Amino acid sequence: MKYFLVISLSILICLAHCKFEIEEVDEFEEFEELPRTEPDLKLKDDSTSPILEKAEAEVTVEDDDEFEHFNDEEEFEGFDTERLHVDDKDPKITIASVPVPFHTKWSNYIMETLLIVGIVAYFANFFYGRSKNAQLADLWFKTHKSLLEDNFSLVGDDGKIEIENSGLIKETESTYTLWCSGRTCCEGMLVELKFIKRQDLASMLNQFLRPVKDEVQIKVDMNKEDMDTFVFCVASKKTAARYSKEMADLSVFCPERKPGANYGLTDSFTVHSELAEVSSSILDAKTVNYINKYSDVIDCLHFSDRYSGLKLTDETAVPTKLPAVKKVLIFTFTIPTDKYADPQEAISTIYPLMSFIFQCMERIKRLRISKEAKIKAEKNRLRVEEAFLKTTHAARAEAAAARKEEKKKLEKERILKEDPEKQRKWEEKEMKRQQRKKAPRMKQLKVKSM
User: Fold this and answer.
1) What gap in Å lies between CA 403 and CA 384, rounded to an integer?
2) Distance CA 157, CA 164 (A)
3) DSSP secondary-structure letter at 66?
4) In 71-199, where do the E strands start and end?
5) Cβ atoms within 10 A of the Cβ of 359, count?
6) Which of 91, 358, 362, 444 qualifies as a FRET site for 428, CA 20 to 30 Å off?
7) What is residue 44's predicted lDDT score, i.e. its pLDDT?
8) ∠ CA(407), CA(413), CA(418), 5° rounding?
């Protein structure tokens, strides 16, 4: 409501401003059109009354000039009498015709009009985009609610002791989350609806240059004992190229990308796999056919026991310990709202994929890799930990040297302030230490006498 008030107030101010200027112009025009009348000093009757004659006789008018002393030659030095006689003539006053600085045409207010139109368009788009995203989120929840309640004992946890909101939680105008828990083989499942920022006019204009789609990202936190040691990912080419650079586990454990055609998938997919037998176990004929069937809405399947999120991009901040990792299954699907005019049809398109998620959870729970693959995976993790320790050791050594140097500097400043004698002793001590450091090291041998 406050946005409508702001818009209305802006429009009223602009209209009042224009109306005020037009009224002022009309007043000036009326003022210019008024005829000039000269006072009529003639008496209607030429005969004068005796009262007026008596009054005129009694009244005497003194025609003294109060500024007469300015024309006195004796008052001023170098007084120019000739210039004075020239200036005695009546000066001619010329009144310039100045145009009225007011405009009565709407074409003179183009900038103001565009500004008002832009404000109105922004707020109209904001309310429309917000309601559109809210409608999509509500449709998704209503469509999947019964299926989620059949597989989880708790659907919609708001993090409070007494649950007040058992549905979707609105994080932003374009992001909604839903937490589900109470199922075997997993600690919980987080559903994140990432819609287009329809409430932002700039984002909608950017859609013409870089189009994005509505997404549903589902993250399943697996129990430690219900998932083996491996990293695996199937994603579209664009997403796979981005994940290989941004995701810490994919960039370290399986940086090599293989085309999906090697496993029977369409050319639009790329496979990342740490272990070859994991790829063959997960991508069986049934799964491959299912992924190919929904290839237009499946964006990424990411299974990892070393998931820690995005890589650290700040090179100056060196971590002192390994980041916390989780065993997760991440599914990313796109909602084809651009292909279907009815939002319900677009949501119904991805409804079967929720059952596919539960099938993958059960399959990962039963999957156990061979002993050789287990040893290889453990070696990979040990190698990563050693490389991390080397990096942190060098960083810690540099930090310790910097702290030691800073401590010496503070000690020197303290000694210089306290006593000159102590300063002299300190300098001698430092000099001897430097000489010992520069002197060649020699071993002392003791020879026993015969």
Assistant:
1) 28
2) 9
3) T
4) 154-155, 169-172, 175-181, 186-194
5) 12
6) 444
7) 42
8) 125
Instruction: Give the global pTM.
Output: 0.67
State the DSSP code for 208.
Answer: T
Give the residue from 130, 117, 114 showing the smallest Cα distance to 198. 130
Q: How far apart are CA 393 and CA 371, in angstroms?
A: 33
User: Nearest-5° angle of CA 246, CA 249, CA 250?
Assistant: 65
Residues 40-52: tens digit of each pLDDT: 444 344 444 454 4
214: pLDDT confidence band, cut at 50, 70 and 90?
Answer: very high
Coil, helix or strand at residue 222: strand
pLDDT band at residue 109 under the 50/70/90 scheme: confident
> What value does the CA radius of gyration of the chain take, rounded to a whole number of Å?
45
Q: Rounded distance, CA 201 to CA 71, Å?
A: 77
**Per-residue three-class SS string for 297-343:** CEEEEEEEEEECCECCCCCCCCCCCCCCCEEEEEEEEEECCCCCCCH
Query: With b meaning 16 or more CB within 10 Å and e meaning fewer, what string describes 206-224?
Result: eeeeeeeebbbbbbbbbee
Residue 442 main-chain phi, psi, to 5 deg: -130, 140
Q: For 178-210, what is each residue's pLDDT tens digit?
A: 999 989 889 999 999 999 999 998 888 888 888
| Residues making up the chain, counted from first to last | 450
Residue 232: CB atoms within 10 A of its CB come to 24
Hey, is 190 helix, strand or coil? Answer: strand
Task: List own/partner pairs for 8-17 with CB under 8 A and 24 or more apart.
Answer: 10/116, 10/119, 11/116, 14/109, 14/112, 14/116
- Backbone CA torsion sign across 109, 112, 115, 119: negative
The token pair that represents 7 in the structure block:
């818009």
**Burial zone of 66 (CB within 10 Å; 0-12 exposed, 13-18 middle, 19+ buried):** exposed
Place of tokens 């003194």: 62
Check if the beta carbon of residue 173 is closer than 8 Å to that of residue 130: yes
Single-letter amino acid code for the residue at 202: A
- Identity at 381, one-letter amino acid code: R
Mean pLDDT of 223-232: 91
Decide: 272 and 231 in contact? Cβ < 8 Å.
Answer: yes
> CA 226 to CA 366: how far, in whole Å?
8
